[in-house]
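Review form for a predicted model. The reviewer records the input and the model, then writes brief findings.
Reviewer: anonymous (R2)
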Amino acid sequence: MRQAWWRANLEFCASIQVSCWLTVLFSETRPNAKPGTVMGNFRQSTQMRNSIIISTLTLLLIACNTNTDKKSTDVETADSSTVSLTNINSERFLPETKATEKFDTLIADKQLQVTIIRIDLDSYVVNEYEDNGKKQIDKYRDAEIALTIKQKSQILLDTVFRKEQFSKYSDKGFMDIAIFHNYWFNKLDKDKIELFGVISKPDTDWTIDFHHYFDLTNRKLTFKQEINDEE
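Model under review:
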């Protein structure tokens, strides 16, 4: 009965179980045993028991601390490999979703209507860089421009522009990293409508700036690239 009572399980860590068997022996239990001998054996047994308990607790605490430190530094993936959180990439689309923007310009005295529609495409260009040790991937959506010019409700021009149509004004390397940024109505000068467009590498001043001139008399559209002499 005494041995069964001392077989207690000490569970301080989920993965470690320790069973301690402590046996207290009394060598002299006969009626004429000397009191001093009995008390001496009892003290020795108590000291031995306390030493075993203290040693066991110390080992358990060391084991628990070791396992906790290991879990805090390792990140386990589904295939049992470990990765560093600083190597995770961040990826985003700009804009986040495809959009369509429409701009109408009305010139009452000429009964003119100039409609420009900018439409985001599925294609995009990629810009990669590091931010605080993390790789950032930005995907900028390209766009196409739809231009419609009407006078007295009659369609004078109805066309669509994409950046590929302007490839002869720059090298292929630029076109691969550029998007059709935007296109605007600029002004009406007598019988000529002036429009302005920009093809650019996102978030830089590396651009192709150009003007379109639409002649209301002969209905011809001409192109002129704007040259920036500043370095």
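Findings: The chain is about 20% helix and 45% strand.
Further findings: The longest strand covers residues 112-131.
Recommendation: see findings above.
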